[in-house]
TrEMBL record:
Pfam families: DUF4331 (PF14224). It comes from the Bacteria. This is DUF4331 domain-containing protein. It comes from Tunturiibacter gelidiferens.
């Protein structure tokens, strides 16, 4: 949940909360993309997807920060699963769009149709939507302490991470996973991001975006400028340099000044903003995915992105002491292992949704 509750709509409707995005090589000749929504399924969130939601994976093939190929999921109205009042089943369709259709609307060539909770397969395309284990790991309390010291006390508090606790341990989410023959995307290096839009009785309206982990929670989290999060989620990568690079540069300049970790904090801030904006996930198709401070190349399910982004923000090695649960990663599609059972979740406190406080 590297982007949990970062918009007003996400706080009201978990199915519109785009928490995470993964991009990696699948079986030879294929590429896998995965989007995470519904933080804390089963404890504080439903497993249903929004019937007027357009859940999209977007790919820029030529480096201009505009999508050239888009894969879109649409879902029917949810119905209760047999004998399970709290579990839902929805039919879905996946389309591939290019040209103007890649940018807006629900149009595109139909790739596969299916039902949540089951793997759908057609012509080398595989899709799965269902409850999955949360694989993002992070010490949320320590991050809050780091940022509180930064904004309120104007100091660097690396000691906040001395008592590791994975706030996301043993939680479940809804995973939207798609594996396609790589030639349906393109070749070489791509830049990708995921979005959720509302599309139905009114004109399409983008409500959530994910390009790199923790952008809104670390780099755009000034208490006096919380509207930046809303602006980010409704905007496109092509706007990022103009709209968000100054905020990213200012944050990293101040953080490295407080930490004493850069000879020239102003220059480091500019370099970090240039690295992160436009906010898209680069990936060399057909190569092993690895998300490291010195190299963003897709993102595998086991990458510990919190440590990477913390170290980048502070310009010094900084680890929160927790990591993804690799025992819950599978070598077979949909690459997520079994969700956590009720017995495994004994003692796990439901996430307090802001809209219900």
């Amino acid at each position: 949940m590297s982007h949990h509750f970062d918009t007003k709509l996400a706080k009201e409707d978990p199915s519109l909360n785009l928490c995470d995005f993964y991009l990696f090589e699948g079986v030879p000749g294929t590429t896998v993309m995965a989007m995470i929504v519904n933080p804390d399924v089963g404890l504080s969130a439903s497993d249903a997807l929004h019937p007027e939601g357009l859940y999209a994976f977007r790919f820029d093939l030529d480096g201009d920060a505009h999508e050239d190929v888009t894969f879109k999921f649409r879902f029917a109205e949810p119905r209760h699963a047999d004998g399970e009042e709290h579990l839902h089943v929805q039919s879905f369709e996946v389309r591939r769009a290019t040209g103007d259709d890649a940018v807006r609307g629900a149009a595109g060539d139909l790739l596969v149709e299916g039902e949540t909770g089951k793997v759908a397969t057609k012509s080398g395309v595989r899709a799965y939507v269902g409850i999955a284990p949360e694989l993002f790991a992070g010490d949320a309390s320590a991050l809050h302490a780091l940022l509180t010291a930064f904004y309120q006390n104007h100091r660097y508090d690396g000691d906040a991470f001395q008592h590791p606790q994975n706030f996301f341990a043993r939680r479940n989410v809804t995973a939207i996973v798609l594996e396609v023959p790589t030639d349906l995307i393109g070749q070489g290096k791509v830049h990708s991001w995921a979005t959720i839009s509302l599309y139905g009785h009114a004109p399409e309206m983008q409500v959530s975006r994910w390009g790199l982990p923790l952008i809104t929670h670390i780099f755009l989290n000034d208490p006096t400028s919380q509207d930046l999060k809303e602006q980010f989620n409704t905007s496109a990568p092509s706007e990022d340099v103009d709209r968000f690079s100054k905020a990213v540069a200012d944050f990293t300049e101040k953080m490295t000044t407080y930490a004493g970790s850069a000879e020239n904090p102003s220059e480091y801030g500019r370099q970090t903003a240039a690295l992160l904006c436009p906010v898209t996930l680069p990936y060399e198709l057909g190569t092993p995915a690895t998300f490291e401070r010195g190299r963003f190349n897709g993102r595998s399910l086991g990458d510990d992105v919190m440590d990477v982004m913390l170290s980048l923000a502070c310009n010094k090695p900084l680890a929160d002491g927790v990591s993804p649960d690799h025992d819950r990663i599978s070598v077979e599609f949909p690459y997520y292992g079994a969700p956590y059972t009720k017995d495994e979740q004994i003692g796990v406190t439901p996430v307090p949704h802001p809209s219900k406080k």
